[in-house]
Amino acid sequence: MTNNSSQPVQHLNSSAMATPSHVTTSEVKGWCATFAAEAVVVSIGNLFIITVFAKTRELRNRHFFLINLAVADFLVGAFAEPLFVYILGGYYDLWNFKHKDILFPVSMFLDMFSGISSIAFLAAIALERLYATLYPAKYRATKYRGYAILTFLLWVISASIPSIRIYLGNDYTSSLYVWMPFVCLLLLIIGSAYIVIWVKVLFFTSKRLNRGRERRLNVTVTILTLASLSAWLPFIIVNTVNMFRPVSIVAVYSTKVLHYGNSLVNPFLFALKMPKFRQAAKNIFCNTRRNAGGNRESQKRRDISTNNMIKSCESSSTQSIRRNLEIKCTAI
Where is the chain membrane-spanning (predicted)? Predict the structure, then answer.
């Protein structure tokens, strides 16, 4: 490596570090390729989710927080992770790295903002399911305004935390005290909410139909939550350990892949565990194919009509020429 700077790479909301001498060029290329491929899948998957929700009124009205979760996860794949790849490769001299003084804080903000907003909406979903399980009548009467206010607050809080982190600069220990307690609180809320939900559904729900429906939905969001916990906990552990001793670059980037992978879980989970989502996606796909087929048929009919008109014109022109010749011959 040509870069001999000892300035650490700021791994965005993680400040775990590795100097250039610790990593080979091939290793950096491998990590960049891994992050880039993950970003593509995350972006496409969550964009698909947003499209299905946006075009399906029933899903759009019933799953307000899930839509915002998909938006947060899309931000991870479309902006945060690609910028992380650019900074990572540029820092290790894979390409020309310009404007680092601007890109470092921008990348850190996007990384923390998208990641924290994602887990914040997971917590909101957990609380929503808890409210629906304990107070179903009140839940069905909940107004859109309440969802809108809570959504606005979650986005504002998610933006405030990385702003404070950037203000603190390179003070790694203080920065951990900014975002880590909030994330741990959200994880605690998620875990506690689903424990209460499962107890209520298993032991205190009398109607079999409602029990089956609630259980299926709760299984879906519980799997989603467990996957998110699996993605976040290693990341938190690595950051905590890094306060006391250096962490290997493999551990840093592996937990970072898992951390970004949290945004990769949702598309596949929705497709596998939500029948209404699968049906809505199928309807959109079939309508798209049907419209494409209809356009091809319409074009084919227009082509046939055009050919018939050309043939008719050619036939009329030929007959006109013959009549003119006959008239001339008669005159002679």
Answer: 33-53, 65-88, 108-127, 147-167, 179-205, 217-238, 250-272
- Residue 169 confidence (pLDDT): 79
Q: At what angle do helices 25-55 and 81-91 cross, to 10 degrees?
A: 170
The pLDDT tens digits for 241-286 are 887 888 888 888 999 999 899 898 877 777 777 788 888 888 887 8
End-to-end CA separation in angstroms for the chain = 97
| Cα 228 to Cα 22: distance, rounded to the nearest angstrom | 30
CB atoms within 10 A of CB 18: 21
For residues 165 and 108, the answer to whether their CB atoms sit within 8 Å is yes
pTM comes to 0.78
The helix/strand/coil state of 14 is strand
Q: What is the pLDDT of residues 178-213, one digit of tens each?
A: 888 999 999 899 889 888 888 887 777 666 555 566
Radius of gyration of the chain, Cα coordinates, nearest whole angstrom: 29
Residue 11, phi then psi, degrees to nearest 5: -85, 55
pLDDT tops 90 at residue 312: no
